[in-house]
Write a structure and sequence with these properties.
The chain is mainly β. It has one domain. Helices cover 10% and strands 28% of the residues. The strands form two sheets. Strands 1-2 form a two-stranded antiparallel ribbon. Strands 3-4 form a two-stranded antiparallel sheet. A hairpin with a 7-residue loop joins strand 3 and strand 4. It is globular, with a radius of gyration of 15 Å. 12% of the residues are buried.
């Protein structure tokens, strides 16, 4: 597995995911990644796991057609 930088414990780790995008008025912004352990300890949710704005998470996604 690929080891990437974890912005929270400031070290390399496996399984890092994007958890925050830093936007600035001027100058470069940035992206913050967290490993699995830091996500659990700090209650961080990866951005790809967030529900769209205005929609509540209602459980696991469906994996097949409904009957």
């Amino acid at each position: 597995m690929l080891r990437d930088w974890c912005s929270w414990h400031e070290g390399y780790a496996e399984g890092t995911k994007l958890v925050k995008i830093v936007e600035t008025g001027s100058g470069p912004g940035g992206m913050l990644y967290a490993c699995g352990e830091c996500r659990v300890e700090r209650g961080l949710t990866p951005l790809v796991d967030e529900p769209p704005p205005g929609r509540a998470r209602r459980g696991p996604p469906r994996t097949g057609p409904s009957t």
